Automatic annotation (TrEMBL):
Residues carrying the site annotation Discriminates between blocked and unblocked aminoacyl-tRNA: 31
Binding site for tRNA: 36, 88, 90, 136
Subcellular location: Cytoplasm
Site residues, Stabilizes the basic form of H active site to accept a proton: 115
Family the entry assigns: Belongs to the PTH family.
GO molecular function, one term: hydrolase activity
Protein name: Peptidyl-tRNA hydrolase
Reaction(s) catalysed (UniProt annotation): an N-acyl-L-alpha-aminoacyl-tRNA + H2O = an N-acyl-L-amino acid + a tRNA + H(+)
EC number(s) reported in the record: 3.1.1.29
Biased composition (Low complexity): 9-20
Organism of origin: Citricoccus zhacaiensis
Length: 214
């Protein structure tokens, strides 16, 4: 995975939140089933659970192949369609594309939350478009949507120690030390999703890209 943060340049279209659209499809990537539920690769779905708890949203099965629930940031404010695909990571594009069509959400109003190896644990990066950095879930979504121009909340999980393969590392649970900080990490990622839905990408980057202070 790469550390490239491709925010739009001066001549590019405005941030999606400036478009006036009020509905956002927020997708947390991961693999289905209890064996994967607490692994690093499923941190995107953990963020969706955090948002659902925060807004009192119940996720229910949708025919698109995902668990979906609706949340409102504030009365009359942006609507968040919180979604956890029921598919495996490598075919995440199928349910994301189906949900986008069902709810008539344009790619510019899709926020994908996913794990990122090239960002340290307890850090976030936000971007729109650009490389998928070897992340198969993102590659699948880009292929199905026909564009890379959707928002990403890249939740840092760090690099594996020593020579441990990255594929094994992301399919393992967080370490004991990481689990102590994980609730704060998830809370901050959830805050970033809300910021993207209520402000501009640039404002969200300025707020969340600096490392958190403890």
């Amino acid at each position: 995975m790469t550390t490239q943060d491709t925010a739009r340049g001066a001549g590019a279209p405005a941030s999606p939140s400036a478009s006036g659209a009020s509905t956002w499809l927020v997708v947390g990537l991961g693999n289905p089933g209890p064996d994967y539920a607490r692994t690093r690769h499923n941190v995107g779905q953990m963020v969706i659970d955090e948002l659902a708890d925060r807004f009192g949203t119940r996720l229910t099965a949708h025919k698109a192949g995902a668990a979906v629930g609706t949340a409102h940031v504030r009365p009359g404010g942006p609507k968040l369609l919180l979604a956890k695909p029921a598919s495996y990571m490598n075919v995440s594009g199928r349910p994301v594309g189906a949900l986008a069509r069902f709810y008539s959400v344009a790619p510019a109003n899709i926020i994908v939350v996913h794990d990122e190896l090239d960002i340290p644990f307890d850090a976030l990066k936000l971007k729109i478009g650009g490389s998928e950095g070897g992340h198969n879930g993102l590659k699948s979504i880009s292929q199905v949507l026909g564009t890379k121009d959707y928002l990403r909340v890249r939740v840092g999980v760090g690099r594996p120690p020593g020579r441990q393969p990255a594929a094994d590392f992301v399919l393992r649970p967080f370490s004991a030390a990481e689990r102590e900080l994980l609730p704060l990490h998830l809370d901050r990622a959830a805050d970033a999703v809300v910021e993207l839905a209520t402000a501009s990408l640039e404002q969200a980057q300025q707020k969340f890209h600096p490392a958190p202070t403890r």
